[in-house]
Amino acid sequence: MEILSIIQKTIKIRRYNESKSFFEFLNNNIIPYVVVKGEPLSFLAYNESGKRKSADIDILTPKAHLKLAEQKLKELDFNSDVNNREKHMFMLAHTHQVSPWYKGIKPFGEFSIDLNFDIFWGEYEGKRIDIEEFLSDTIEMEIYGVKVKTLPPLKAMIQLVLHHYKDMNSLFLLTTRKSIRYDMFKDVYYLLKNNLDAISLDKLYAMSAEYEIIPYVFYVLYYTGQVFDDDVLKRYIEAFRTPDGEALLNCYGLCEKERREWKCDFKTRLDSDNLYELIKDELTERDKEKIAINKRIFLGIRE
Q1: Element (H or E) spanning 21, and its range?
Q2: Residue 93: burial class (beta carbons within 10 Å; 0-12, 13-18, 19+)
Q3: Is residue 61 predicted with pLDDT exceeding 70?
Q4: Half-sphere exposure of 246 (CA within 13 A, CB side)
Q5: In contact, 58 and 143? CB cutoff 8 Å
Q6: Parallel, antiparallel, or unpaired for β 34-36 and 56-60?
Q7: How far is CA 131 from CA 29, 30, 169, in A?
Q8: What is the span of the domain harbouring residue 254?
Q9: CA-closest candidate to residue 95, choices 62, 115, 58, 123
Q10: Span 183-211, average pLDDT
Q11: Are strands 110-116 and 101-104 parallel, antiparallel or unpaired?
Q12: Among 147, 149, 165, 285, which is most exposed with the fewest C-beta within 10 angstroms?
């Protein structure tokens, strides 16, 4: 296990070393961005690096800055299939990100830099968050010798909650990967517990109300409470409880027209290595068509 940990840390160091010039470009050109999840979240939630598994570097930046960022990645010998017009247009119109940019780190294969321009999912029907504003109070962090910007704990929690809600409810993700995992709730729990001043109940509630996401925060906190029995967490859950939030419990689907109830309990979902088997009989032809399109766009799978 120790050897594996050393290898994993070596890979992460190599990723950031290969990305150093890109981050210097972003910092020097005052391009608004943050690194989300990954190593910054490891520091915020666990107070040390390497506590989270990640295969890429996720960056959030406003859509207006994507072109400049992608041009620089190309100059730095990162590769992407941005010339695939169908995929490029689909991702801009229906998702929160553009095609990943890849680079090899021999002998460890490839890693990717993922450029995200939204913290909501493509199907989201509510008020969008202004990403320029969301990135107005970033903090600086040094990761393996590379200076990057990331979100302060409160906004990191907002981003994490919305990301986990998406993973737990996306038909495409539920049918193609294990998108309900213990470590998701572990991240939420420890990010909260290790930043109680920055993520106080009043602050989290006020920001969630401002962004009109109280039901989604309740949903993720509720299921975190199913994994971690904690009195502080229970206070947060009860404060965020609303009829709209309760209506989301035991359901999946990212919009009203595709939302339906689970036929199994949360523990079964959490323990399952094949979530598709749990929902396949409930999928409509419309659902299957949508999943097939996403498989073709994101996985290159034609059915």
Answers
A1: helix 2-28
A2: exposed
A3: yes
A4: 5
A5: no
A6: antiparallel
A7: 18, 15, 23
A8: 152-303
A9: 123
A10: 99
A11: antiparallel
A12: 285
Q: What is the bridge-based pairing of β-strands 251-252 and 146-150?
A: unpaired
**Is the confidence at residue 54, as pLDDT, over 90?**
no
Same domain, 46 and 179: no
**pLDDT (mean) for 249-276:** 97
Q: Does residue 220 share a domain with residue 264? A: yes
Claim to verify: residue 11 and residue 125 sit in the same structural domain? yes
Which run of H or of E encompasses 146? strand 146-150
Is the previous residue joined to 107 through a cis bond, with omega within 30 degrees of 0? yes
Residue 5 has what pLDDT?
Answer: 83
Note whether 158 and 264 are same-domain residues: yes
**CA separation for the pair 65, 21 (Å, rounded):** 17
Collect all residues with Cβ–Cβ distance below 8 Å to 244 and sequence separation of at least 6.
214, 215
Longest CA span, the chain = 52
Please answer whether residues 175 and 276 qualify as being in contact, where contact means their C-beta atoms are separated by less than 8 angstroms. yes
- Is 70 exceeded by the pLDDT of residue 243? yes
Inform me whether the pLDDT recorded for 301 exceeds 60. yes
Strands 56-60, 110-116: pairing is parallel
